[in-house]
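ok here's IS110 family transposase:
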Amino acid sequence: MSTIQTIGVDLAKNVFSIHGVDAYGKCVLRKTVKRNKMLDTFANLPPCVIGMEACSGAHYWARELTKLGHSPKIMAAKFVIPYRQNEKNDANDAEAICEAVSRPKTRFVSIKDEEQQAVLCLHRIRHSLIKNRTATINQLRGLLSEFGVIVPKGRYSLQKAVPDILEDANNGIPFLARELLNDLIANIKKLNEEILRYDRKIYQLSKEMKQASKLLAVPGVGEHTATAIIATVNDGKQFASSRQFAAWIGLVPKQYSTGGQTNLGHITKRGEKHIRTLLVHGARAVIAQCKTKTDSTSLWLQRLVERRGYKRAAVALAAKNARIIWALLTTENEYKANYVNQ
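and the structure:
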């Protein structure tokens, strides 16, 4: 049998499809293995490039295959779809993955270690709690409106006003409804405590992470943003340029150009949504404090807000910060507020 050069693996929970080709692209391996036989199968194969889609378990298998001497590469599913022929099934997916991993323009996801994945677990759980809290607040606000009680906008306004509303015996809210609404308030308080506990964990992690202090020096980058970026991209060297990093986050304009005419639209909003959200929120905080400052960034923001508006300025600063972050991660440089490129 010819020497296997490249393998595509269609990952699943229990059954995996494998497609391997030699240096000439000829199929020399096509089989299905169960989960408990996965590592034994690859232990008996010569070192080769192994392609996988980014999905649940991909980083775990990539780490295990690296220990066996292979070179695993993880890619987004969108890079695999153009190479799939015929109907969609596990075998055809594995063949498409095998083809996509050998293409020079395919971009790959950096393989995360256990600690990075643990930090991302923290961020995802915290984000889920925030979504649950928002949903509960909206439910509480909607239920109160059913009885003609309108609460001012904002989480803090609601939490301050609702206890007085429930104690008011003249607003016509039945006893059963008061009891149920009080349960929702208790649930919101519990979620507040859990979110605060996770915030403290993230704050502690930002002190322990090696490169977090460099990123925290950038205006608009806090503990949440720094830890999320380091856990997701590590050193950032998988991106060829700062613009590619900003494009991966989804902070560059969407382009629809033809006939030599350049047409730029809204930002693409592709890639890492969580990091993009954190960068934009951080940019908003900077803009809110820039009115009385005279440093170069604040003066630039003041002019930009006046010329293009608040929201565009926030996205522009987020994109600028993304490029600065990439430069800090890929070099030994520290952030300088009034840096001038010589």
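+1. The chain has three domains: 6-109, 114-208, 212-330.
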